[in-house]
Amino acid sequence: MRRILISSDLSERSRRALRRAVALAKQFGSWLSVLHVVDDDQPQALIAQESRAAEAVLRDELDRASVGDVAALSSVSVVAGDPFRAIADEAHRLDADLIVMGAHRKRLLGDIFTGTTIERVVRLGGRPVLMVNRDDDAAYSNVMAAVDLSEASAHALHTARSLGLLEPDRDAAVHGFVPLGEGMMYYAGVEAHRVNKHVAVSASQARTAITKFLRDHGFGKLSNLLLIEKGTPFAAIDVGIHQLQPDLLVIGTRGHGGLKRLLLGSVADEVLRRVECDILAVPASRNIP
Fold it and tell me: What is the assigned CATH class of domain 140-289?
């Protein structure tokens, strides 16, 4: 992990994210860039005044959160513009390996119609985004990856490992499955023991498929701690979080635009809104449809 971009809105959520970003920079010897975006829809004099004040606050926070070795390998930038585009543009300019952001403020209607800032940065920036929920800067030691059989999921695993945030020897994976026809069996009055047997067979088939998927992509050791849970992907993730109490969740994203996203959403969007541990959201490679 060579370059980390931390985007701050000067909130307490962002201060937690800054502490995590500093800890990662120390751990990996990374260059750390701190960014704040000022609203550009106001008079230039106010933009200049806010920019100076924000830069002073950020430099002070960076000094207090870090020690000399990190401060010497860091920069602070304040720009005016649209936050989503400004963060994505700065990440591209820096060729950042990771974007770090504080947990978003939950606003139901705003989230439904526009998506959270983090979701939009993932889609615009095309780079891994670490959303920091926890007030803890200790190195991640209990990581859980949400997996399915998609190339986006494999890409998320490879990205998390290349960033140094996933260790297959140590960490866990979770997968959710929905037994085909279970509801129809209940509706048709099939005996409970036969339904249960069908569910058990489906769970075994899911475990076999995911284990092969992990092995084929070089993550076979993740199957040593593999949770196969009946239910939707988010329900399985929720069970895994309650059982394993991870400090970091890794999830791949497959973005949707416009009406399709509004109607269907995605598992990653739900995770970003509701999960309380830190989340590494990895956008699909541009080569993945």
Answer: alpha beta
Helix pair 267-274, 117-125: axis angle to 10 deg: 140
Tens digit of each residue's pLDDT (9 = 90 or more) over 164-182: 999 999 999 999 998 887 7
Under the phi-then-psi rule, with left for phi > 0, alpha for psi from -120 to 50, and beta for the rest, what region is 212? alpha
SS3 250: strand
Name the pTM for this structure. Answer: 0.86
Predicted local confidence at residue 194, as pLDDT: 81
- Other C-beta atoms closer than 10 Å to the C-beta of 264 total 9
Alpha-carbon separation of residue 95 from 4, 20, 125, 194, 239 (angstroms): 9, 20, 11, 55, 36
Q: Which CATH architecture has domain 1-132?
A: 3-Layer(aba) Sandwich (3.40)
Give the Å distances, CA to CA, from 179 to 36, 116, 198, 229, 239. Answer: 47, 32, 8, 11, 17
DSSP state of 281: E
Q: What is the DSSP letter of 73?
A: T
Number of CB atoms found within 10 A of residue 76's CB = 19
